[in-house]
Amino acid sequence: MTKRKPVTQAAKKEYANKSMRFNRFLLFRYMTAIFFFVNLYWALLSLSQWTWAGLIPIALLIVDGLILIEQTQKYWQQSNRLLVTKIGYWLQFGVNLIAIFGILIGQQATL
Asked: What's the pTM value of the predicted model, to 2 decimals?
């Protein structure tokens, strides 16, 4: 039998705090994943009839990638500031509103 080293209470507490700080952004990570795959699907559909609007989902995919990088950094950084995520979500929200409006006025083929 091998002897296990006793884990100190401080080490457990440090690990728990690190996990808690990272997991509090779990909802943002899931939302980013959903946005990423929706934009990927939109980009793939745009390839069948390429227009200038096909650049929109590609740009949003890049923004989603930057958001993923920022959220992954939160595991090592102690900050709770998500500036890129905030800007990226507002951009995503604005583009979705414009796209919905465009579809309602009959621009489905363009988008």
From this structure: 0.74
C-alpha separations of 58 from 12, 43, 62, 104 in Å? 43, 6, 6, 23
The pLDDT tens digits of the residues spanning 58-90 come to 999 999 999 999 888 877 777 778 899 999 999
Q: What phi-psi label fits residue 59: left (phi over 0), alpha (psi between -120 and 50 degrees) or beta?
A: alpha
SS3 assignment, position 17: helix
Smallest CA-to-CA distance from 111 within 50, 69, 65, 70 is with: 50
Amino acid identity, residue 75?
Y
In sequence order, which residues have a C-beta less than 8 Å from that of residue 29 and are 6 or more positions away? 68, 71
Spans of all domains in the chain: 25-104
Query: Contact at 8 Å (CB) between 93 and 79?
Result: no
